[in-house]
Design a protein that fits this description.
Length: about 260
């Protein structure tokens, strides 16, 4: 019995990570999605409370952000705001599934499809928080800084805090990471490029009346757009690899501390 539980959270070998079967969202121990790597008991009230604090933090942040910066609906065309919505959806859904697990273990453990959706959402969000933050602070912030205190606060809330908070969260949770799962954030990136192109073709304007959403993704300049797409693709693979490294670090420390189940 001890051997079986020890193998449950053991990471795959690096060779196995590159097997195409691990493109799928399959994990043999669904209970790992409702636990912290560091809890000793079957259910942890501390982890549940933490989950809801994170959910409330990003949920209230999103609601207030949409109210303040709605700007005739143009708030929904920016990648930053797609990412902030994803932060809220991920943190709230995480709190909900842990709550259901505490209330009725069997009813949630058997909902494999829902857990797959959550896992994909979690990984996409984790990677995109870094992509958005890196691009913003290096390419956009130097040219355009917040004009007032409120904008400055939300600027940090949307571009600065998510990668920090969700990397720390990745060190706390118990579910695994897969190297090949970079395809899921790549899929969202591709969807956003398609959206910006359709928006451009249909004559959509940003909140300042320009024909592009981001200067670096201006479809009127195909070469610049192509460079941006390649840069984001490279960043995406790098960030996915980095967060996979965070997962391996967590598992390594947990193993040494006897917390690997």
């Amino acid at each position: 019995m001890a051997q079986l539980t020890e193998q449950r959270q053991a990471p795959l070998t690096f060779r196995d990570e590159f097997k195409l079967v691990h493109l799928r969202l399959h994990h043999h121990a669904p209970e790992d999605f409702f636990r912290s790597q560091w809890q000793s008991e079957l259910k942890s009230c501390a982890f549940l409370i933490y989950r809801w604090i994170l959910a409330i933090f990003f949920g209230t942040g999103l609601c207030s952000y949409l109210i303040i910066f709605f700007s005739r609906g143009t708030v929904f065309i920016y990648l930053t705001n797609w990412g902030f919505i994803l932060c809220s959806v991920t943190s709230i859904s995480g709190a909900i599934i842990v709550s259901i697990y505490h209330a009725s273990t069997e009813s949630i453990v058997n909902r494999r499809c829902m857990l797959k959706c959550y896992w994909a959402c979690y990984w996409i969000n984790l990677i995109f928080t870094h992509i958005i933050s890196i691009i913003y602070w290096t390419c956009i912030f130097p040219k355009k800084q917040p004009q007032n205190l409120i904008s400055g606060i939300y600027n940090v809330w949307t571009h600065g805090l998510p990668p920090v908070f969700f990397t720390l969260d990745h060190l706390l949770v118990a579910h695994p990471a897969r190297l090949l799962h970079f395809i899921y954030p790549f899929g969202l990136a591709l969807l956003y490029v398609i959206f910006t192109y359709v928006y451009y073709v249909l004559g959509g304007l940003d909140r300042l009346g320009r024909s592009y959403i981001y200067e670096m993704l201006n479809h009127g300049n195909p070469l610049q757009t192509l460079k941006t797409i390649v840069m984001v693709a490279v960043l995406l693979v790098c960030c996915s690899t980095l967060q996979y490294g965070v997962y391996r670090l967590r598992v390594c420390i947990a193993s040494k501390l006897g917390k690997l189940l």
